[in-house]
Amino acid sequence: MNAEKTTIPGEGRPGLGAQLLRRKPLDQMVGEAGSDGGGAPLVRSFGVLQLTMISVGATLGTGILVILGESVPLAGPAIWISFVLAGLAALFSAASYAEMAGLVPVAGSSYSYSYATMGEGMAWICGWCLVLEYAVSVAAVAVGAGQYVNETLAGFGQFLPAALSQPPGDGGVVNIPAMAIVLLSMVLLVRGARESARINTAIVVIKVCILLFFCAVAFTAFDAGNFEPLLPMGAAGVSAAASRVFFSYIGFDAASTAGEEARNPKRDLPRAILLSMLIVTSVYVLVAVAAIGARPWGWFDGTEAALVQILQELTGRPWIALVFSAGAVLAIASIVLTVLYGQTRILLSMSRDGLVPPVFGRVSRRTGTPVAGTLIVGTVVAVTAGLVPLGELADATSIGTLFAFALVNVAVVYLRRNRPDLPRSFRVPFYPVTPVLGTLMCAYLMANLGAATWLVFGVWMLVGIAIYVGYGRRHSKVAALSELEYRTLTAKPSTIKETHS
């Protein structure tokens, strides 16, 4: 259906069906980058190193440090295969992200890509999934902080009571460490993106070092017999674990939200996305193999801070566990910092389009950051992290992540077919096989998530639809364009080349 044909007479706005199909012109999207509609622009200060570290910082550590104890019982010794499966699905999608990030270097990530290709309706759904993906993943990662804070304090003969280090449902009242890490990250992000990126880079280096140190120690006690039988829970168990750990691969999505703060986004974003995926997947598989080799898979069931426990048992030296625990707290903090960063940039883009309130799009002239939006998001996420159990958060994040990734794969196919003339700094290899496989693998992993997760996802979508109908539909800037304006903008495929160069 043509969006222009169902415009409401006298109102200048399309009907609901036509509005849902209205695409945001690519040249308009790129032209708006760096502006919040009258306020200060975002500051372009990131090179390929900072972008890669944002991606690695948002990804590396979650699946190992936080939910390993909950994932191993699902897959058994084959947990490393689950990481490979999730990593493969992520890699296909990462290639699509790399092409889209070089083509449309804006802060909206897959939300913006969907808006440019599939229209406002699918863009809203994608954006709403990203809110679930980012905000809930921050909370999920922060929840695991309580385990490592207690392990660190144990080195000094101290500990936090369960009431203050676990959420309700896990034997506690409120998870204070989780809330504290989110709030500290929020304050750091408010101060400025460049400062945050520098601190994140330093923490990522520490994180990689402590994980490699764990592998070096764990391999001294490697027992190949721990991998037999390899598939005690069958292929279904491997798939279920892959679906659960998939949320830990959202880092390259976080890097793509930095499109308006990268110095050379067309060149550096694709490189950062693919490089980070290679680093993260390699380290995840290495650590998983080392952990299973050191301890039989049944040992992980119900074990908190599993890597620390392995180190302590193997070395018998509490100070080693203390150093690792302190490093793990920093590692979790870097994940919270970078993913929270991505969430604020997604909302900034949605606000720029009028689909969420303008408060999320206001950029401070002093700091060059969306201060108000960061404070709102940080507060809401902190409360969630303090009160909701980890397992429920991890699964809810995975389904939002998978859905958004699938849409990006579809966006690549759409633009290759309909806009082959657009300049691309990176092209998905083995097209169209790669984006098609990426879409199918995301759908497969979604199908392996439990009924409760799908129920939460359905409720979340209903809430999103209500918000769109009640607010987004009436404030959409693309829908506010007259028929003539919309025709004119969508009929200018060549202007993006000038803006994009």
UniProtKB/TrEMBL annotation:
InterPro entries, sorted: AA/rel_permease1 (IPR002293)
Gene3D superfamilies: Amino acid/polyamine transporter I
Compartment(s): Membrane
Mode of membrane association: Multi-pass membrane protein
Keywords, ordered alphabetically: Membrane, Transmembrane, Transmembrane helix
Pfam families named in the record: AA_permease_2 (PF13520)
Stretches that traverse the bilayer: 48-68, 80-104, 125-149, 169-190, 202-222, 234-252, 273-294, 319-342, 371-390, 396-416, 428-446, 452-471
Taxonomic superkingdom: Bacteria
Main location, first listed in the record: membrane
Protein name according to UniProt: Amino acid permease
